[in-house]
C-alpha cells in the first residue's frame, strides 16, 4: 500500500476492504487514493480471475 512493490500487506488490506462491507463501512469518494489502489489490485490477474 505504501510502497512500489506488491506485498502481503496489500493482499491483507484488499481482503479487509471486502470484509468491511459486511459492517456497513464503505470506501467512498472521500478516500480517492484508496479507491484507486483497490481498483488497481482488483485488476491484477490473480484477483480478477479469483
From TrEMBL:
Residues 1-50 form the GST C-terminal domain. InterPro entries: Glutathione-S-Trfase_C-like, Glutathione-S-Trfase_C_sf, GST_C. Pfam families: GST_C. This is Glutathione binding-like protein.
Amino acid at each position: 500500500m505504501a510502497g512500489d512493490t506488491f506485498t502481503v500487506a496489500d493482499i491483507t488490506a484488499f481482503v479487509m476492504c471486502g470484509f468491511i462491507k459486511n459492517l456497513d463501512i464503505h470506501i467512498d469518494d472521500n478516500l480517492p487514493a484508496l479507491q484507486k489502489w483497490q481498483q488497481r489490485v482488483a485488476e491484477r490477474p490473480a484477483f480478477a480471475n479469483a
